[in-house]
Amino acid sequence: MPIDRLALLTLGIGLTIASLTLCNTARADDAKDHDELAWNPAWSKFRTSEYVLTLAAGAGSAYAFFAVDPPSHPHWTGGILLDTPIRNAVYLRTEGARDTARTASNVTSLSAVVIAVGVDSLIVPLFRHKSEVAAQLVLMDAEAFAFSSLLTNSLLATVGRARPSYADCQRDPNFDRLCRSAPQSSFPSGHTNVAFTAAGMSCAHHLHLSLYGSTLEDTLACGGMITLGAATGMFRLLGDRHYASDVFVGALTGFAFGYGMPTLFHYGKAERGTQNSLVVLPATGGLGPSVAGTF
What we know:
CATH architecture: Up-down Bundle
Structural class: mainly alpha
Largest sheet: 2 strands, antiparallel
Helix content: 55-70%
Strand order of the largest sheet: 1-2
CATH class: Mainly Alpha
Shape: elongated
Number of domains: 1
């Protein structure tokens, strides 16, 4: 399938998920009691210290992104482990195709944020008249994104890893139109980090709260968001903007913050037999973490 069609298909899937969400929740309200979507009193609500730390992390992330100049020359060039063979196997050979893949990665990463924050954390709880739940979810999302982006932007500003195309651009400055665009900002993959942070948050929320009113639908929502994150990472490889190790680290750190912070600071340890559980495992193949759970 051509990459431009794949990008449009991915966007269509994201929009379809978002548009069907209200139908799912409306159906859930008809079939189940409203109180299924409720904040468990045993869970800690957002604390004053978290407001302070989230603001500080957000400010630090913004400073690293806007005010810290990346290294003028790469500190690290070339791939590690399977980076080079994977790059040679998957990156698109024409500039137009690479541009389309990069656009697709913008679409998928943005769609992940819109679905996780705008739809699942905000629209769905408000639609079900659970404003307290919506407030807590949005605050947890902001916290996870603040710390995840702080780490990612700090690494991008200091590590100075050359893009996969760096050597080709040195030989031919016209190899790619982005040869001079942040050539030393390959590690880690920011797009992948954003998408997997959103995926982690989505999984944490869906596996602890009955957002869609159905265990099956909530589980599928988590899996769908992980798929969207994996698609983002793949598009970054196709567009030749990152090595596989950049994508893997971006996915791992993003999911760790997205799933870990809400779970550790708020949801806590799920009671056996009363909550869904999920375990993140190292990937044995492909991109990003693998997920196993009991539902």
